[in-house]
Amino acid sequence: MIDRYNVPNLAQGQYHRAEETIHRSRFIVTIARVSSAEEAKAFIDSVRAEHAQATHNCWAYVAGEPSSTAQVGASDDGEPKGTAGRPMLTVLLHCGVGEIAAVVTRYFGGVLLGTGGLVRAYQGLVKLGLESLPITERVPTRKITITLEHRHVNLALREFETAGARVLEKNFALDATFTLEVPQSKAETLIKTLTEKTSGGLLIDLHTGKPVQS
User: Fold this and answer.
1) Would you kindly state where each structural domain of the chain is located, as residue ranges?
2) Over the stretch 119-149, which tens digit does the pLDDT of each residue have?
């Protein structure tokens, strides 16, 4: 599991674009941030609708961590097989950016590029878009609620800070309850440390079902 990784610094519905003319054909690359296959398909459909008169709208996406093939897709959209979608996907898988989708729109200019020329054109457009793409770092997190005795609060706060956890909510009633956003890679260690240092005197809700008595 990757502790943190780069993603496009684009809000939902926001796109990044670059354009180049190659042998009279107009090529436009549109890039978006997507975190699921469904989001990728919605993005692709929106670009295809915008450029409905284009000769081709070829696409590729990596909807998870960089280089992960768990949620990927690609299409040549009528170009010769293997000359557009797959080459685009190769670039995305090796660019070091996750949760990314790209559509390369082509308005044919009358000059055939050949298979090698098409591969270079489609890969080149994705690379062109990546050169100016704004990126930001994403740290995968999970939500945890921890309830413990008041005498353990200071200890807990120190461990929260060590783990890089962010306190979303806190409640000091009969016991102290904290709802946290914890880096995914640090969650298990935080729970284990608190369990050991409080001698098991805490209640943990992993927000996946029933609370766990530690």
Assistant:
1) 5-137, 140-213
2) 999 999 999 999 999 999 888 888 999 999 9
- Summarised one tens digit per residue, pLDDT across range 184-211 is 888 999 999 999 999 988 999 887 544 3
CATH architecture for residues 5-137: 2-Layer Sandwich (3.30)
Tell me the CATH architecture of domain 140-213: 2-Layer Sandwich (3.30)
Do residues 62 and 91 make contact, with C-beta atoms less than 8 angstroms apart?
no
Q: Output phi, psi for 78, to 5 deg.
A: 95, -15
